[in-house]
Amino acid sequence: MKKFLFMCLMFSGTLSFAQPAATPQNVVQNALVQKKQMEESSVVKNIVFTNIGPTVMSGRIVDVAVNPKQPTEFYAAYASGGLWYTNNNGTTFTPVMDNASTQNIGDIAVDWQSGTIWVGTGENNSSRSSYAGVGLLKSTDKGETWQNMGLVDAHHIGRILINPENTNEVVVGATGHLYSANEERGIYKTTDGGKTWKKTLFVNDVTGIIDVAMVPTNFNVQYAAAWEKDRKAWNFSGNGSNSAIYKSIDGGSNWTKITTKESGFPTGEGVGRIGLAVFDENTVYAVHDSQFRRPAEAKKKKASNDLVKDDFKTMSTKEFLALSDSKLNNFLKTNGFHEKHRAPNVKQMVRVGTVKPIDIAKYLEDANSMLFDTPVVGAEVYRSDDAGKTWKKTNQEHIDNLFYSYGYYFAQIRVHPKNKDEIYLAGVPLIKSNDGGKTFDNIDGPNVHSDHHALWINPDLKGHLINGNDGGINISYDDGKNWIKNNSPAVGQFYAINVDDEKPYNVYGGLQDNGVWVGANNARESVRWHQTGQYPWKSLMGGDGMQVQIDSRNANIVYTGFQFGNYFRIDRENDSQKYIQPKHNLGESPYRFNWQTPILLSPHNQDILYLGGNKLHRSFNKGDNWETISGDLTNGGKKGNVAYGTLTTISESPFAFGLLYTGSDDGAIQLTKNGGALWEKISDNLKNDELWVSRVVASAHKKERVYVTLNGYRWDDYTPYVYVSDDYGKSWKNIGGNIPASPVNVIIEDPENENLLFVGTDNGLYVSFNKGNTWNLFTNGIPAVAVHDLVIQPTAKDLLVGTHGRSIYKTNIAKLQEMTPKMLAKKLHLFKPENIKHSSRWGNAQSTRFRPNTPGVDINFYADKKGSFTARILTMNNTEVSSVVVDGEKGFNVLSYDVAFSKTGKSNFLKKNKVKLKQAKDGKTYLPKGVYKIELSGNGAKTATKFEIK
Questions:
Q1: What is the mean pLDDT of residues 149-160?
Q2: d(CA 367, CA 640)
Q3: Binning pLDDT at 50, 70 and 90, where does residue 85 land?
Q4: Sign of torsion over alpha carbons 542, 646, 694, 740
Q5: In the chain, how long is the greatest CA-to-CA distance?
Q6: Which of 22, 211, 290, 368 is most buried as measured by Cβ atoms within 10 A of its Cβ?
Q7: What is the 3-state secondary structure (H, E, C) of 786-820?
Q8: CA dist., res. 861 & res. 818, Å (int)
């Protein structure tokens, strides 16, 4: 039953979304300025985050730039993890873009002579998590500082070429918006180092430039690949008649389309992404992700008499009933049909007309099957030996198992600079041809991740390759026979994270194309594991890692899985796992599962598990059996080749079992107060028919309260949609307030302080101390990276931040939890520091090879305005042993005290205490055991607290 709710007076106006519009360029630019200002004024800017890794699985590389004169020096560009530099052949890397306004990269180019770096921001691979950028960034000091050189509204950059003879002359290919049409796409050229740009090629507002390549010895001769595409949340068309190859003979100033019907290169609606490689003035290669259908082939005779899915599509009822039970049962069991679906009862269902034979085939098909079953041509290679006038297809057979059905993610080709018949193709594997593309061999290795996007070939050292893939950097010196893996940067692309209650507690997370991992929160990232063989994080599962739930009674029981709802119950102690995805009944439409299907263990009973498809499923026995407790809780989705109309988030109130909320990718938010017996759609008041519900959170502080975040990423809409309701969703209050424009991924509520909220966006983390009325940027130690998930470990009082590009960060929020309205109203508040244990080794090194062991106490205080503050350390009889004057900021401040006497303080202490004080080897005299008082004054206020040296 649908209930119609009335608009509450708390709305100052009508909230209406309709079809979201892409965020204008000026709003994006203003948001960057606003964020920079918030960085300076944030009251939490002195609270530092620590990156806890992991690193071993690395993250997606999009490009590499190698110093041709010294190939041990190169830059590695990560899709959403920034730019990293090495000068020791990848043994170590240093991030050089952490102070830039984004970490999202499409392409890089380096002028090695001057050290100038160009970064085209915004990944160009057009995947579901290819984040937009902020235009072109340029550094003339090797990454110390960055300047935005324009093309902000291009969103995604395909390729950058620098004229080696005149480095102020640069040509850029821009792919444009990913989810919407726009004008800022095509070829852009500058002749003044990026001060001004001229658009020299524009096809239309849905066709951009994905690749540009030049003749190695002649910048004037260039080729550009235009790519028409249309991505929506429910459908991706990666091809169109405007996809083509263009040529310029004047350095990119003018362009001519050269892939005509007469050229021999494909034309028409099926032309997909194109990658280019130029050998010389005459020879050019193109790899093409052909979306034309393969010609019909005569059906091959089956190797056995076993049934296959397609048999049932044309089978009559009579033929079906004539099947032997053993043959039918073999098919049903092999293909994962529920045990209730065995030959006798399925035949009876067909006999009475409940289902038809074709329903057997439909049972195995879902909204995602087209991604892998569509019979398109796929990868093909074309070569021109007359400078692009004519083209010939080089491969005689289909290049299967390279692109599968998602060539839009790859389409990269390279030719050896000194042998025009040696070419490399990047796809799921990395393959090579020695005969100009007629035949290919796989050159992957067991320590090389799949999904390849970048490759550099050393022209002077045969066999030397530097490869970039979804698992980072690999280097080979024997043309792919053996590989070195270089995975020291913490660049994991996390979708979801969670924690358990062990001591020390563990952190879990699912990553893009790198599975699910678990590690202790205090595990140290170090290369020592190369010696011990024990990396501190452990892999739980492969694929694209998804959400994780941990049984609070037994942390060995973990629920997790991979994309599209393929979840498992894992028993880590017994090294076993059980597949637990709910299955629809025969004759029903298949359930739709989101790429990141939501799961939830009930806070009321850890045997109860929820899993969301387009309907909500509940298990009372840990996923062994399921019941469906709703109808379709979405807005119904849309027809397309991507699963849509799926649940994305689930929350159950800690106040009442069965008080459940769900959110969907097509904008529906639903509520049940009775475990699914009756559902109520509560998103109608938001007029939200399209925006992805990224999070719904039932409050732990008030039964009627619920938080919701909506995400416009899939519309190129950067509006920060954050809402709260105090009446079960009957009315909503917008609390997005002063958050700079960026899609919102997550909101969490502090478990102790109801006023304390945290929000993660595609460009940062924010904290509110007043239930969302105002927000502070909270990113000291975290670059401008997408925050996908947040979790608080309640005992340790740690906030864990799961980023999609820089792994996981951690900080302690105990002091933030203390900031009640009463505390915030004070002029000055001094937090009680941790007690420390005395050591005779303070200030003394074990040998000259080691640094002295030095102690410290952090004196944390909160000030309501900037000013000068005096901190005095006193004994309990008010003898001053040390003092310091510091400049404090408005907000949280940290003063690190070395637990040592000042010169005057030591004298004061000895006058009143007849004890012997021993000076340490570092020249300091440290405080003896005892209780000490910290007295802090400033801003017209004075406060004190104590700490103990035990």
A1: 98
A2: 8
A3: very high
A4: positive
A5: 107
A6: 211
A7: CEEEEEEECCCCEEEEEEECCCEEEEECHHHHCCC
A8: 12
